[in-house]
Specification:
Blueprint: E1 12-13, H1 22-39, E2 41-43, H2 46-53, E3 58-60, E4 63-65, H3 68-75, E5 82-85, E6 92-95, E7 101-104, E8 110-113, E9 118-121, H4 124-135, E10 143-144, H5 157-168, E11 173-174, H6 181-195, H7 198-203, E12 207-211, E13 218-219, H8 221-233, E14 237-239, E15 244-245, H9 253-274, E16 280-284, E17 287-288, H10 301-316, E18 321-324, H11 335-351, E19 355-359, E20 361-362, E21 367-368, H12 370-388, E22 390-391, H13 394-397, H14 399-406, H15 415-418, H16 437-442, H17 448-462, H18 470-482
Parallel strand pairs: 2-13, 7-19, 8-21, 10-11, 11-12, 12-14, 14-16, 15-17, 16-18, 18-19
Antiparallel strand pairs: 1-22, 2-4, 3-4, 5-6, 8-9, 20-21
Amino acid sequence: MLKQKKKWEGGEMSLRFKILTEDDIENIHAATLKVLGENGVRFEGKRAKEILAGNGCQVKGNRVIFPADVVEKALRGNPSSFKLHSRDLKETLEIGGGETFVRNGGNYAWLFDYKERSRRKTTSRDLEDAIRLIDGLENLSPVGGFLSPLDIPPRVIWPYTLYALIKNTRKPIFGPGVHHPYEIKSIIEIMLVLAGNRKRLREKPIASFPVSPISPLFFPEDLTETIRICVESGLPIRALPCPISGATAPITLTGTVVQSNAENLATIIYAAFIDKDVPKIYCSRISPMNLRTVRPMWGNPEIGISSACSVQMASFYGLPSDVYGLCTSSNFLDIQSGYERMLNLLLPFIAGADIISCAGGIGDVLMGSFEQLVIDNEIAGIMKRFKKGFSTSNGEIGLDAIMAASEGKTFLTHPHTINRLRTGEIYMPTLSSRDSWEKLADRGFPDIRNSAREKAEEILKTHRIEPLPEAKEKEIKRIIKSYT
């Protein structure tokens, strides 16, 4: 016989998943402290080494040792959440506030044409269309530079991408990755055009920017200076190590997680020494090595597993997380793409990731697809329903509706039903079919890929973004031209 332990009061239920035990987390943290405190990290640049040495690190040539007490102190007090705003400040996302946001992948040089079943090189027009499409998809935010147009000079690709984002979305922005000081300087100039001054840029950021150390454990001078300039501006920064298991990291998933953790912490600690109050995001872009070709594989289950691990490690350090999930190795919009991206998204989503990336990406994150963006928008909506869960409170159970139905009344017209028809209690897809065989037959049995293409075309035809003020757009163009 079951024993009642306490009075039933009802509560909230939703999916939660932890892949690491507390002991696992402590083991990963201890191994990371050993890497940072005994092996250290290669840091180049006189100013970077002065900052690190001035905060208790031991600098031996280009090798920087992070003592455990320095690590612990540097990780305390960083923002656990922050607000990212749209360009007009009308939309705000609280990153680290408990909600999971799904965003697009980025910087693809190839665009997949579903109608022709072929790929082509991307253009600046493609980039602007992609951003405007994402702006019109309700479950994708923040917005990043989806494509890397090949008709734009390489030296100005990053400021141009930021310009395209500002121009074509009203959502908050996850800006392009920056690697060189001239890139972040051009970006800050553009951001100041919008913000007006540095104080507002810091207080109301509309974009964050990723910086990627070179695995294993290497920060060249261009990168250390880029981090310093970005943090001093007050812009949120994303630590973005990209180790490949077996190639640029240990072949074991655990070893790669430890190395990625060390690279994340080295970035975040260095940024904290510059300004503790600037938001910092812990990211994971771990991928396994293809044992036949040595290339990374982005459709493997290790993507979802490592991302879920990274979510827990970020939480352990009190930092927001940004991980990969909607990934596939398939070059087509097929069943393989569907099951790989859904499974790799599910694990970090229910682990509590703050941001999950790669919507719209196919072909081992080398190619983008407008149709896949639309499909991923639907998948993101499904994931949100999973995470929402349900409540066991009296009002949600609907005891009065059950009792009324037992007396011959219908649930269809009961207030308990009527009041919840539009609350998302039952998920209603906007793309996936729920029609009968007969209705599908009348429509010629449409394929979801065709439906996604039609929806993308409709959004691009009708969705409009309020233009930038003419003076600001002119000034941004001048800045971009000055960096060519």
